[in-house]
Write a structure and sequence with these properties.
Blueprint lengths: L1 H24 L12 E7 L6 H11 L4 E7 L3 H12 L5 E6 L8 H9 L6 E5 L3 E2 L4 H10 L4 E8 L5 H11 L3 H4 L15 E5 H6 L12 H11 L4 E10 L6 H22 L2 H23 L3 H25 L7 H21 L4 E4 L2 E5 L5 E2 L1
Parallel strand pairs: 1-2, 1-4, 2-3, 6-8
Antiparallel strand pairs: 4-7, 5-8, 6-7, 9-10, 10-11
């Protein structure tokens, strides 16, 4: 039993090294071309203290882009923030207000489906907590010109002030680079990062538009699926973008992780393959299995080795982020990533209990097995 635990840690170390090596190999940032004319669609819901600063940062970094902010009528704070910022950027921002989405609609996609207009050329979708660095749209447009129909980026979470925000940052930053990039060794991406992507109005229309997926909650995967079914090309580009979400308490953290795990389960059921098993699922459970074997065998040495293996992986990820993204993180980021990794089996197991129930931005939702919103 103890010997098996040591063997699992050796396999974990080898797979982690392979994942990091593949991430470095596929880190190929597109060269920025001329600044493109882009319509940036941003579904907005207030509540995060950084909303105004994030929206202003995108305006400042991309003065040539046209922003279309999509706000709910029932969100007075969102209306106030967007109209105030728009008044300071005349000619760059259009604020569109929407009534409540039907109970069987994804509220984000409901607004997107009604925001695309005839004649839109390059269309970007950007979450309201995501900040694009200068040149990101130009790089994405260049990747689109070089053989893509939809280009998506890579998220990097800024650690917030709460412990729960730091746990979310530890989870995303510890997995994004070695999830999205290594799988490119097996072929084109099967899904996209819905926090930021760039496409064209024509490509979007060929895929059926946002209206074709507005009753699905996992919109990034469903949109990617429709692009693939219509023979269009998805590009996972090395274009990092910052995400800053304030997670105020344990309940909000639990809801967020449950939603992400339910979405992941939907994708895994549809796309399970040998590369996904070897590069994503297996390394995610090996150190936890070693910890269980250490507990059953009363081996403190094996338990400490398992924790050391997870700490080494987190430290290696911090070095990789510093090299590829140019980040400068505190040493505590490694500890938060280890803790986030330790908690993942709990979140994954929790998502298997009543997987048809999630809460999205305070709105309870019931889902069927395909991820479609039920009344």
């Amino acid at each position: 039993m103890i010997l098996l635990g040591w063997l699992l840690l050796v396999v974990f170390a080898v797979i982690t090294a392979v994942r990091i090596g593949l991430a470095a190999r596929f880190w190929r940032p597109p060269v920025a071309g001329p600044e493109p004319v882009v319509t940036v669609l941003q579904p907005i819901l207030s509540g995060d203290p950084s909303l105004s600063a994030d929206l202003q940062s995108n305006l400042d970094s991309h003065p040539g882009a046209w922003f279309r902010w999509l706000v709910d009528d029932a969100d007075p704070e969102g209306v106030r923030v967007t109209t105030s910022l728009a008044s300071g950027s005349p000619g760059q921002v259009e604020v569109l207000q929407f009534g409540a989405a039907p109970a069987t609609c994804n509220p984000k996609v409901f607004k997107l489906a009604r925001a695309v207009q005839p004649g839109d050329g390059l269309v970007a979708v950007l979450d309201d907590d995501t900040v694009l660095p200068p040149g990101a749209l130009a790089r994405a447009a260049e990747a689109l010109r070089n053989g893509g129909d939809l280009v998506t980026g890579l998220p990097y979470y800024l650690a917030g002030h709460t412990a729960w925000s730091r746990l979310v940052a530890g989870f995303v930053n510890g997995s994004a680079l070695i999830t999205y990039l290594p799988l490119l060794a097996a072929g084109p991406p099967v899904t996209i990062n819905g926090m930021f992507y760039l496409t064209t109005g024509d490509a979007l229309a060929r895929a059926g538009g946002f209206g074709a997926i507005e009753d699905f909650v996992c919109d990034d995967y469903e949109l990617a699926l429709r692009y693939r079914r219509t023979g269009q090309r998805l590009v996972q580009a090395a274009i990092p973008h910052q995400v800053r979400t304030t997670v105020p308490d344990a309940a909000a953290y639990r809801r967020l992780m449950r939603r992400w795990m339910v979405f992941t389960g939907r994708q895994l059921r549809a796309e399970l393959s040998l590369p996904i098993v070897l590069l994503l699922l297996v390394p995610g459970v090996l150190p936890h299995l070693a910890l269980l074997l250490a507990a059953f065998g009363w081996s403190w040495t094996l338990a400490l080795a398992a924790l050391l293996a997870m700490t080494t992986k987190a430290a290696a990820m911090a070095v990789l982020r510093a090299r590829l993204l140019g980040t400068a993180e505190s040493a505590t980021a490694v500890g938060w990533e280890v803790l986030a990794d330790l908690l993942q089996p709990i979140h994954a197991a929790g998502s298997l209990l009543r997987p048809g129930r999630i809460v999205w931005r305070a709105k309870p939702m019931r889902l069927d097995r395909s991820g479609r919103v039920r009344p």
